[in-house]
Amino acid sequence: MAALRAHGLLWDGQVIYQSQSADAFERALAQLWQSGTLFRCRCTRADLKKTGTCGQACVSKQHPDDAAHSVRVSVDRSLLPDFEDTFLGPQVVTVEALPEDFIVKRRDGLFAYQLAAAIDDALPHFNHIVRGEDLLDSTHRQRWLQAALGLSSPHYAHVTLLYGADGHKLSKQNGASEVNLDQAANNLRQCLEQLHQAPPPASARNVQEILEHAIAQWSPPVPPAQCS
Ligand SMILES: [Zn+2]
Questions:
Q1: Where are the domains of the chain?
Q2: Are 73 and 79 in contact (CB under 8 A)?
């Protein structure tokens, strides 16, 4: 939040913390249980198929609630159409992106990222979700969950990632150094260049002036060329 503020990127309304949404996640799970979409999976890591899906046909076994298990959705692929990504163009649902099942509640009792993100991002005041393209497969799963729950999906826009010289994406997970908040204006200039946007004039010195220019000149990033 401090980094966003330093770059003049502010938000509407209150910040919503995922830890406050447990009731909404439980209600969603109850709805999915009721519609016959969920099953308890007792597979260990070694039991899973290569795709990470259930490897022991748990869907037909009706495992009891009292032994360790994760909760998975059994995916009805007919429920989900392809979608148009605002930046990347048409996105086709693939088996890798949307496997036959995936986890919505983990064995340790935590709600899975896919469920939490699907519900939070479908809140009515969110209209666009902008994030890195490494989450594209997750988007298919989250859109599927939104459809299964009768929620409208927001628009999605995935941006290409930045990679270090070692070929790994720049992220805290890979030990990338953090954004220097003391040079926010310069950071914005570099981001705009990466996004192939018109460079702000040299007269735009501070964050506010650069953002004003960027908004006025904004053109959507061009989707990568399609292979024929
Ligand atoms: Zn299983």
A1: 20-80+95-126+135-154, 178-217
A2: no
- Residue 43 C-alpha to ligand 1 middle, in angstroms? 4
Q: How far is the CA of 66 from the centre of ligand 1 (A)?
A: 15
Alpha-carbon span 138 to 201, nearest angstrom: 38
Give 82 Cα–ligand 1 centroid separation in angstroms: 28
CA 162 to ligand 1 center in whole angstroms: 36
Which CATH number is associated with domain 20-80+95-126+135-154?
3.40.50.620
CA of 58 to the centre of ligand 1 (A): 4
Q: Which of 105-109, 138-142, 186-190, 222-226 has the least mean pLDDT?
A: 222-226
Measured in angstroms, how far is the CA atom of residue 106 from the centroid of ligand 1?
A: 12
Tens digits of residue pLDDT in 85-141: 998 999 999 888 899 999 999 999 999 999 999 999 998 888 999 999 999 999 999
pLDDT above 90 for 47: yes
Q: Is 68 exposed, middle or buried (0-12, 13-18, 19+ CB in 10 A)?
A: exposed
What is the per-residue pLDDT for 228? Answer: 38
For the chain, what is the radius of gyration of the CA atoms?
Answer: 21
Going from the Cα of 42 to the center of ligand 1, the distance in angstroms, rounded, reads 5
